[in-house]
Amino acid sequence: MKVLEALGLKGRRVLILHHDDLGLTHAQNEAHLSLGLPTGSVLLPAAWASGVRGQDLGVHLALTSEWEAPRYRPLTPGESLRDEQGFFLKSPEEVWKKAKAVEVEAELRAQIEAAFRLFTPTHLDSHQGSLLRPDLAEVYLRLAQTYGLMPLLPALEDLEALPLPQGFLLELARLLEKTPFPTLRLLDPYTLPPENRLGFYLGLSQLPPGLYQLIHHSALPTPEGRALPDHKTREADFFALSHPEVRRVLAEFHPITWKDIQEVWRRG
């Protein structure tokens, strides 16, 4: 699917500015409102999922709960999705080793259908990349078609940069080659130190033409938000995206949403 051509944007620098982990904390949700940017995805099993408001929201499909607190549980009873305390497993590697595809599919369906009861979703993505096991990626793509939602699919260059198990990359590359859905380049500063965040955003001005998704995890600097181990990273995203020079750089891109892509898809 040639999105930029369909949107009349071939040769332009085009950006989806995407707020991850909405619903995780109230501080995350309030940052989304404060920044006034339309796109993000919601962790449906998390405590604040029902408090998310936005114009272009997706389902942040979760199979992991990575911290000691807060933690969240599956919406379905699948035993292969749970640790001994009944919470989601702590890492993608545990999911890849333990999860049964049939139980994963039931859980993903439950999360998508829960989203439809709260808002009108436009897209899907995967929390921590847990759906990169090839058989789970096939489930992900099938559910995207079933529900008419756009799946986030990274370009092959971004997949090649990930520390995936041997054999995953070849199978994922085959899936990308066959899929009718678009791929895009991912920009994600999450692993950078907080003090480098502003420089990362300002450096976006050097990117060539193409379709990009910039992933951020902005949260307000509140006591509740600071209960997360990575709160400094989330606050750094919020302050950088509030900075007037960063806003000037972002204005150099043509902004689109997943809803725009969904509408192109529906037109065939």
Structure description:
This protein has helices at residues 3-6, 26-35, 92-98, 101-118, 134-147, 156-160, 168-178, 197-202, 231-242, 244-250, 258-266, and strands at 13-22, 39-42, 56-61, 123-126, 150-151, 185-187, 210-216, 254-255. It has 268 residues and is of the alpha/beta class. β1, α2 and β2 (39-42) form a beta-alpha-beta unit. The chain is globular and about 50 Å long. The termini are close together.
Short description:
This protein has eleven helices and eight strands. It is of the alpha/beta class.
Terminal-residue CA separation: 9 Å
The coarse overall form would be: globular
Profile the largest sheet. Answer: 8 strands, parallel
Give the amount of beta strand, in percent: 5-15%
Number of strands: 8
What's the pLDDT, averaged over the residues? 96
Please give the structural blueprint.
Elements: H1 3-6, E1 13-22, H2 26-35, E2 39-42, E3 56-61, H3 92-98, H4 101-118, E4 123-126, H5 134-147, E5 150-151, H6 156-160, H7 168-178, E6 185-187, H8 197-202, E7 210-216, H9 231-242, H10 244-250, E8 254-255, H11 258-266
Helix pairs in contact: 4-5
Features:
268 residues, 11 helices
